[in-house]
Design brief:
Four copies of one chain form a homotetramer. The first copy, chain A, has 133 residues and is α+β, with helices and mostly antiparallel strands. Chain A is built from three helices and five strands; from the N terminus they run βααββββα. A five-stranded antiparallel sheet of chain A has the order 1-3-4-5-2. The A-D interface holds A 17-19, 22-24, 26-27, 30, 45, 48, 54, 56-64, 66-67, 113, 116 and D 16-19, 22-24, 26-27, 30, 48, 54, 56-64, 66-67, 113, 116.
């Protein structure tokens, strides 16, 4: 089950090479994961307030394939590959029309917001993810 | 004639004080101005390619009134106050529901993309703006 | 008494117009104010932990005069103009050699980190600033 | 031969979780690679002007191990692992004192600045890198 989120490229995203600065694709991917969680009924802010936990990226393998440019309209495609007790694995790619701009494997983990120690995923989120997967 | 553009606050926009980092409101305002130009039929990228000119901010007076937070849904309201031969003046404000987050006066100028010398606004844009104003 | 802080321009700071993206000058100015406070013996993180207060920008009037470019070595010059019970006023400018890149008046205020209500400046900081000013 | 570059964490780098936002570590790593090139006598801006080529990241595997926080003083350590005709491979890690914050393998490639087609590394740079490696 793939989740698609549109992103417009603004001046703020580009660099002097005339293309999107590479680390900004990580922001685009996080926006898409956040909106995917929101669609499932989970807000990162509410999660933190209610459970004291946050979800953070622990590993990322990313390939930058083609440059995106100012004013481009992009799509971030996200698929949840795997869920364990305390982590997620996503495959995400960014497309411009039919062209691949970049792709990544992203591992997310659940941490206590104060100690940054790993935590089990909140039960409601885990349950929801099991249905999605 | 007011133009409204919605903005969602993501982790990338916030800082360790738990709120939107102040300079990011300038990005939000630029997204809104860009979308306002796009609605009038002007893309910044096409403008640069066709006329060799770019539009940049030359002055900004900004008041940060209340903090916006993670997951907030904001609105950027933009009104074109004045157009001269080579510059615009905008009033922009960012709201969260009925609360004012920040407000600014923004002066934009038209520059040659290579020399960064001031240029007259392209005729088609000037004409369109005269109708809006 | 002027405080000078050097800044190197990296790709991350520039945009597709080939110059520093305008909102990034606000980051440069905040780095300089932070280092100025550090030189006086105050860390923003320690301030927050010890007093529960944070210092934020409440108003900024900024003029963008000339563009800075990739690899430029800049200087941020900061002068404290005024200190009241709960606020500071700074004049800051960014130079490239003898050329002015931008200049700003920046008002900072002291807020409670949880309620974002205005607070009097911590006594130790106030006292230190009175000597600087 | 390891190259070390110091980085201070400012508010701009942090997010509402109270730590450095993950994509900003990519910026820190690029600053370090840029300074490493500068130490060898190569400026990215001069490279682009003289050869028409730019160096960009094509692949990155990154592990985020521990969070860095506001005011932390970090070190980016960079080692060039391999140089081929058109690409570099770096290992980079970010440390806070003796603690590892994150580590990455970073593949950089040389591209034509206009067409974004792969190019052989400029001879002077290739020669210099062969001595470093």
């Amino acid at each position: 089950m793939e989740f698609t989120w549109p992103i417009r490229v603004y001046y703020e995203d580009t660099d002097a090479a005339g293309v999107v600065y590479h680390s900004n694709y990580l922001k685009y991917m996080e926006r898409a994961r956040t909106e995917w969680l929101r669609k499932l009924g989970f807000s990162q802010e509410v999660l933190r307030e209610e459970t004291g936990n946050i979800i953070v990226v622990s590993e990322m393998d990313i390939k930058f394939v083609r440059p995106a440019k100012l004013d481009d309209m992009l799509e971030v495609n996200s698929v949840l590959i795997k869920v364990t007790g305390a982590s997620f694995l996503f495959e995400q790619s960014i497309q411009k029309m039919q062209e691949k701009i970049c792709s990544a494997r992203v591992k997310g983990v659940c941490l206590n917001a104060l100690t940054f120690k790993p935590q089990r995923l909140p039960a409601a989120l885990k349950s929801e993810l099991s249905h999605v997967n």
